[in-house]
């Protein structure tokens, strides 16, 4: 059925990375491709349909090309995951093209940065903006799982990954941001409870200090020159590329005993110890260890994993 090898453990597997245009979604799509998977890359930014409201240059076609270059097969599909009809059409297409197969679902839709208010408490925030963040960052995940999970249930196997920020109950600094990132952890927990009897695992996974395209732009550096920004922010020395998150998720997807993790909130800084993967520069960033060493005295404990 597959031609999987140790170098390509996901050969023959089919993945959907929802929100794969940039950031952790892009890193995950490419890592799954490098492991041999066929990856449907979705998002709102497309060469043909134009940019999303984020107005960034990355596109689903660009990510899909990187998936193919890494050794997999990237299939770009412009999808608005807040539109149930769009998502329904997407999963129907995957089912038709892949003979009903879907092995990996990564819910990485975010797009909430311009909607996040880091300066004000809830009672001083714009309510419409905050609720729009929740619809963009939580409802999209629910909608995607609702239409994708029947493929996994029918085949009796699979892995659902909810990408979040942080794997503890620690407050994340802004009411709606915290609610969104906490909610997707609960989505993983709830899906795990319903899916386990069908042989499907569901987990949440968080990166550490992620060097997304937007973060690199903020510091005025590139992935090749990112260390130049350490002088401005010493914590940036402990950051990680989107590929590190991707390699963590690819390792989970290739684990024949992945059900042992189901219902858990996991992190790159613990998964590298389990699976031995590295970042693109050969390092193994551990932001939790850096927090304990350098930040806990000021900001308090990071908190125990959920």
Automatic annotation (TrEMBL):
Pfam families: adh_short (PF00106). InterPro entries: NAD(P)-bd_dom_sf (IPR036291), SDR_fam (IPR002347). It comes from the Bacteria. This is SDR family oxidoreductase. It comes from Streptomyces toxytricini (Actinomyces toxytricini).
